[in-house]
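Colleagues,

For the teaching module next term, I've prepared a clean inverse folding example: a structure given as tokens, and then the sequence designed for it. I'd like students to try predicting residues themselves before seeing the answer, so please don't circulate the second half yet.
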């Protein structure tokens, strides 16, 4: 088998997968239908912001180990392994598998041109049964070849976190390989032999379910601590201390226990909704998962309520929103809490000024002319009646508070991510409110 690999779907996961496979010594073709993305990558420009991606893209492009193309069929025909990393968005609560089907058709057409064994790895998050019921039959139909003989298919869910993607890909907590063809599994094991991790081998649909269960658990953990934060406020208790103490219990662990304005991004909300929807389709009512979603749907509005608790009506108020991306170190705004918060502020008649170190361009596509875009965080605060921190970017945690206070009309700081020390904010003359802070709320 040659060392050529095609990665189909050049998004956050595909780009990082391709770059890391090139790091592991493979020659990688990055294939996408989007000619603009392909052109950018060809010029050595990453179409997304993700730490380390641009540098590695330039490096591997110059050595010829990474190439971008819109011709998936041709790339697959030259490769021994193809990864499916296309998006699986949620449309009206259901998973849209059209990208996966399209990728499987092109991969099948590429396999039709080959004489040797080929392995297809499904990395996109797909509902249990998709690989057996959609991917394999589609490839067989498009290639005229037989799974288990001419080609094999594995499921290898991805657990990387945006903002930390390269590190997570190269140092995963575990690598899950779902398979039914032993030979295909061996190829994938060999592919990842350069990465030290625990290997979990399962059947195809178990691997698909592991990804959904993983994300549902993380989503529940965040909604749990947010619900506790909201209750803490009623008792004048600081959720940060509560979270710290319960996080020390090894059965709980401190990760994903930070109260805030809720989870967003391309995975947790989408995957939680998908799991709820497929469970309901099978006549099961997933009450726990639904509750996690309900908490998350209303959590962004908590910061608006905190602003109102001090300012009263927000009509005519100038509100600075710091942070638009769904989390730091990314420009991804898919389902970001900032969107709900800004829409709620605009509905209440507030004038909104926004800032984000990386997501301003994406924000312009969402909010258009309805908000003012500030070039720096301090510029956003000029003349503001309130500053709401929505994303925990480091530069907001390090905001020069004395200077910031002087710029604002009313020095009200609503800390949606609990990244500012309330005592320091008070020393600088701020009125401080924070999710789950408790003090000043009774
Ligand atoms: P994305 O939306 O950023 O990118 C998907 C890409 O696939 C797009 O560039 C699109 O043009 C391309 N595409 C769609 N159909 C295609 C086709 N038929 N042929 C070629 N290209 C096609 O998606 P993403 O965020 O990278 O996520 C990809 C998958 O990985 C999803 O299933 C997602 O749930 C899962 N996942 C994402 C993350 C994450 O942090 N973003 C983490 C783990 C898993």
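(Answer key — instructors only)
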């Amino acid at each position: 088998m040659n060392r050529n690999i095609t990665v189909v779907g050049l998004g956050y996961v595909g780009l990082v997968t391709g770059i890391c496979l090139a790091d592991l010594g493979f020659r990688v073709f990055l294939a996408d239908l989007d000619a603009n993305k392909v052109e950018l990558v060809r010029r050595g420009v990453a179409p997304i912001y993700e730490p380390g991606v641009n540098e590695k893209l330039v490096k591997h492009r110059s050595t010829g180990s990474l190439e971008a193309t819109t011709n998936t069929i041709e790339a697959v025909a030259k490769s021994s392994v193809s990864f499916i990393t296309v998006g699986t968005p949620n449309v009206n609560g259901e998973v849209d598998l059209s990208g996966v089907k399209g990728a499987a058709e092109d991969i099948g057409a590429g396999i039709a041109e080959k004489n040797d064994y080929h392995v297809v790895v499904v990395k996109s998050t797909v509902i249990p049964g998709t690989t057996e019921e959609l991917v394999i039959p589609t490839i067989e139909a498009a290639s005229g070849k037989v799974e288990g003989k001419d080609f094999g298919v594995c499921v290898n869910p991805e657990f990387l976190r945006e903002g930390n993607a390269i590190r997570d890909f190269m140092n995963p907590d575990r690598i899950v390989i779902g398979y039914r063809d032993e030979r295909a599994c061996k190829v994938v094991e060999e592919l990842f032999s350069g990465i030290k991790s625990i290997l979990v081998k399962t059947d195809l649909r178990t691997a698909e379910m592991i990804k959904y269960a993983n994300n549902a658990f993380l989503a529940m953990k965040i909604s749990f601590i947010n619900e506790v934060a909201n209750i803490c406020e009623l008792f004048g208790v600081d959720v940060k201390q509560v979270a710290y103490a319960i996080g020390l219990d090894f059965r709980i662990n401190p990760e994903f226990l930070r109260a805030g304005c809720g989870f967003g991004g391309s995975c947790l909300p989408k995957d939680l909704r998908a799991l709820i929807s497929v469970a309901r389709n099978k006549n099961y009512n997933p009450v726990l998962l639904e509750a996690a979603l309900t908490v998350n749907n209303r959590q962004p509005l908590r910061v608006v309520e905190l602003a109102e608790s001090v300012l009263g009506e927000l009509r005519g108020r100038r509100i600075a929103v710091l942070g638009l991306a769904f989390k730091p170190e990314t420009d991804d705004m898919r389902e970001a809490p900032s969107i709900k918060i800004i829409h709620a502020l605009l509905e209440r008649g507030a004038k909104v000024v926004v800032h984000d170190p990386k997501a301003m361009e994406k924000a312009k596509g969402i909010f258009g002319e309805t908000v003012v875009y500030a070039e720096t965080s301090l510029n956003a605060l000029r003349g503001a009646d309130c500053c709401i921190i929505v994303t925990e970017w480091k530069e907001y945690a390090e905001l020069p508070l004395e200077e910031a206070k002087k710029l604002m009309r009313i020095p009200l700081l609503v800390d949606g991510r609990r990244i500012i020390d309330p005592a320091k904010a008070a020393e600088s003359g701020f009125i401080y409110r924070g999710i789950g802070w408790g003090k000043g709320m009774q």
